[in-house]
Amino acid sequence: MNVAQPNISRDLQYLQRQATSYIYSLASGTIASRFKEAEDGILLAKARAWNLFDDLDRSDDIEPAVKVNLKTALLKVVLASEESRYRILMDSESILNLESLNNSVSEIERLYRQAYR
């Protein structure tokens, strides 16, 4: 193939911009709404776990050892909920920062090409 290096570079840069634009549009639209849905579900599970935890305090017909085991399990649900919310937050920030990262990589590639011409 007799294709000049500048043409290949321009084509690659165009494809990178298109890919970045696509990912960013997903991050600001579809993916963002899915993260919100996931967070809402997590918050609902956590609220339900706390309600059950409180119900156990008001219940007199459950043995104390069983109460302790159930409360421990419910606290694990609360903890897992918080961990999941944190992961969702970190993942969403990562996706939204993808464009910035891609721009940095493109700049490094440009400087590399200039240095080795």
Strand content: under 5%
Number of strands: 0
**Termini separation (Å)?**
21 Å
Largest sheet: none
- Give the overall shape, derived from the CA principal axes: rod-shaped
Q: Considering DSSP H and I runs of 4 or more, what fraction of the residues is helical?
A: over 70%
Helix-strand string = HHHH
- The pLDDT mean sits at 78
Quaternary state reads single chain
Ranges where pLDDT stays below 50 over 5 or more residues in a row are none
- The gyration radius over C-alpha positions equals 25 Å
* Number of helical stretches of at least 4 residues: 4
Structural class: mainly alpha
Domain module tally:
1
3D architecture notes:
- By secondary structure, the protein is mostly helical.
- The chain has one domain.
- Helices cover 89% and strands 0% of the residues.
- The protein contains four helices and no strands.
- The longest helix has 33 residues, at 64-96.
- The mean pLDDT is 78.
